[in-house]
């Protein structure tokens, strides 16, 4: 790995600069979840900073739960719980059957999709990837998922084309770490396209859940929009006082 040159004139503290470089290495999968990062001696040589500065950066990442420092063994990247398992709410469809299936509608790279690109904080000249599918319960369409992500992660989807595999499963299998997600629940009216797919009238009320998920460096990784038939949707939230 090439040596890094720190900017001593930067207003950002040196330890914070080191912290960001470590996060970049993790997010770019140079250091993967469950693996040990290089030794302190190697990192001191790579970053060319004092031992105190390096330890401050690592200590900060340990406190945030991104790294795990083990005495006598070293420091490793924590394995994150897949984001689809750390939801604070549970979505349940009315049980009218138990056979759930999916069908991919679209998998595409594009320079357009401007709203999603803005959510992902990507420049206009960078492509993003769209994975779109419809979900069925006993053959009845109940939801449309539009899942937008970066071009690099999109390539992983192109090699895992399956109507049954969940998007987050693809992300997890390829060691892409997700730190947190924010959901928005809103009521929308069905567009002509959505009405045709879901078998409802144009303009009919639907439920939309939008999600923005970020990686361990807090940069957006995926933006999704799921449209549900209101008559097939139930949303429950469990709150706990810890």
Automatic annotation (TrEMBL):
<dbReference type="InterPro" id="IPR036388">
    <property type="entry name" value="WH-like_DNA-bd_sf"/>
</dbReference>
<dbReference type="InterPro" id="IPR000524">
    <property type="entry name" value="Tscrpt_reg_HTH_GntR"/>
</dbReference>
<dbReference type="GO" id="GO:0003677">
    <property type="term" value="F:DNA binding"/>
</dbReference>
<keyword id="KW-0805">Transcription regulation</keyword>
<dbReference type="InterPro" id="IPR011663">
    <property type="entry name" value="UTRA"/>
</dbReference>
<feature type="domain" description="HTH gntR-type">
    <location>
        <begin position="12"/>
        <end position="80"/>
    </location>
</feature>
<dbReference type="GO" id="GO:0003700">
    <property type="term" value="F:DNA-binding transcription factor activity"/>
</dbReference>
<dbReference type="InterPro" id="IPR050679">
    <property type="entry name" value="Bact_HTH_transcr_reg"/>
</dbReference>
<dbReference type="Pfam" id="PF07702">
    <property type="entry name" value="UTRA"/>
</dbReference>
<dbReference type="InterPro" id="IPR036390">
    <property type="entry name" value="WH_DNA-bd_sf"/>
</dbReference>
<dbReference type="InterPro" id="IPR028978">
    <property type="entry name" value="Chorismate_lyase_/UTRA_dom_sf"/>
</dbReference>
<dbReference type="Pfam" id="PF00392">
    <property type="entry name" value="GntR"/>
</dbReference>
<protein>
    <submittedName>
        <fullName>GntR family transcriptional regulator</fullName>
    </submittedName>
</protein>
<dbReference type="GO" id="GO:0045892">
    <property type="term" value="P:negative regulation of DNA-templated transcription"/>
</dbReference>
<keyword id="KW-0804">Transcription</keyword>
<keyword id="KW-0238">DNA-binding</keyword>
